[in-house]
Structure formats: structure tokens, C-alpha cells
Write a structure and sequence with these properties.
Layout (H helix, E strand, L loop, with lengths): L19 E4 L3 E5 L9 E5 L11 H21 L3 E7 L15 E7 L21
Length: 130
């Protein structure tokens, strides 16, 4: 596997301008520049792949570890965080605008939304409530 494979012009491959919070040989982590909530985090593979489905087993296991580590760090930094949404946009029709895999870890707090029931179903207007 070539973790150095980068795509010229890709925002996440050319990450020199991004404020990296943590990194390893496979991934780096940043806070989202347009956060849904405070501490909204992006976990991004260093290898250029379009979606989560293109990650290899080693990257998937590492991704899970980083999600769990960041969950703990966020909850230590903000005890009001009681829940999380984890999301990925895989393909243009799902809303993906940067065609480099990235996983959103979105902290949630009691009362941050009047009726949170349905969670990620809200990506389609009118489908969150059921």
C-alpha cells in the first residue's frame, strides 16, 4: 500500500494549509472548517481514496480507533457532549463535495436540536421524523 499516493489539486491531499489536530502514518484529524457543532471532527486518510468503501482493512481498523480516541478526547474537553453522529458522504448524490474520503464525528449535546429523533435520516428533508 502506498500511503503517499496523493492527487494533485485535492484539498485533503494537499493538506499543508489545514490545521492538523493529530496524525499517524495512515490518517490525520482536523476540526471541520464549517462545523455543525463545536468539536466537529474530520478523520481523513492520507492515501487518496474517494470514499470509505475504498479503504483497505488496515485503514478501516485505524479509522475505528481514531473515532473512539476522538470521542473520548471530545467528551473530556466538553462534558456536555452526550452523543455523536458519525457520517460519511460517499459519492456526489450523497452530498460529497471533496472527493477524498473523510469521516465526520459530530458531537451532540442535550437540547442542541428540539427533536433529534431520526438523526442522520434528516439528510433528506421530511424523512427525519417517522
Amino acid at each position: 500500500m502506498n500511503v503517499d499516493s496523493k492527487l494533485k489539486g485535492c484539498l485533503f491531499c494537499q493538506n499543508e494549509k489545514l490545521k492538523v489536530v493529530k496524525e499517524s502514518n495512515l490518517f490525520y484529524i482536523i476540526y471541520d472548517e464549517f462545523p455543525v457543532t463545536k468539536y466537529h471532527t474530520l478523520i481523513i486518510p492520507k492515501r487518496h481514496v474517494k470514499t470509505y468503501f475504498d479503504l483497505n482493512k488496515e485503514e478501516i481498523l485505524a479509522c475505528d480507533r481514531y473515532l473512539r480516541d476522538m470521542k473520548q478526547e471530545i467528551q473530556q474537553a466538553d462534558p456536555l457532549v452526550t452523543s455523536f453522529n458519525i457520517g460519511m458522504n460517499c459519492g456526489e448524490e450523497s452530498g460529497q463535495t471533496i472527493m477524498h474520503c473523510h469521516i465526520h464525528l459530530i458531537p451532540r449535546r442535550k437540547g442542541d436540536m428540539k427533536i433529534p429523533r431520526g438523526g442522520v435520516r434528516g439528510v433528506i428533508p421530511g424523512k427525519q421524523s417517522y
